[in-house]
Design goal:
9% of the residues lie in helices and 25% in strands. By secondary structure, it is mainly beta. Strand 7 and strand 8 form a beta hairpin. The radius of gyration is 14 Å and the shape is globular. The chain binds iron/sulfur cluster (2 copies). The site of one iron/sulfur cluster (SF4) has 14 residues, from strand 1.
Length: 129
């Protein structure tokens, strides 16, 4: 199963690219507070966020780059450059066994974020009990 297409508005992240693309190979979506089930988008976070301000953060994030997507992106606009998504937010209606996300697309929000907690999966919708 292929995961959702990811768009992201967090332009302070090392992985962020113009066009609201994410150049990471994989992103991890977590509950913002450990042990507390998310009930709204603000309770989630993109744990793969890496503050782009500072050279050490850039080097630290190079092992999680979608190089194939980066090379192909100029030729196949918007289609290949999307990370895989690992999500543990079971309280979301799109969550499926295996830490998968069943949404067609997700939008990561949190423009100007300084840390992971400032980011959210804006597509989160609470699962009906
Ligand atoms: S915040 Fe997450 S989705 Fe957005 S660019 Fe960074 S790693 Fe990718
Ligand atoms: S839409 Fe739901 S299942 Fe998909 S990544 Fe966001 S929080 Fe996780």
């Amino acid at each position: 199963m292929s995961g959702p297409v990811v768009t992201c508005e967090v332009d302070t992240c090392t992985h962020w690219l113009p066009g609201n693309l994410c150049g990471a190979a994989n992103i991890d979506i977590l509950h913002e507070e450990e042990g507390r089930m998310a009930e709204q988008p603000e309770h989630t976070e993109c744990k793969t966020f890496y503050d782009r301000r500072g050279v050490s953060s850039l080097l630290g994030s190079l092992d999680n780059v979608n190089w194939t997507g980066l090379v192909r992106e100029p030729f196949v606009s918007g289609r290949d450059l999307t990370p895989t998504v690992t999500c543990i937010v079971e309280s979301c209606r799109y969550w499926r066994d295996g830490d998968l996300c069943e949404a067609d697309e997700i939008k990561v929000t949190g423009q100007g974020a300084d840390e992971c907690q400032d980011t959210n999966c804006g597509t989160f919708e609470r699962r009906d009990e």
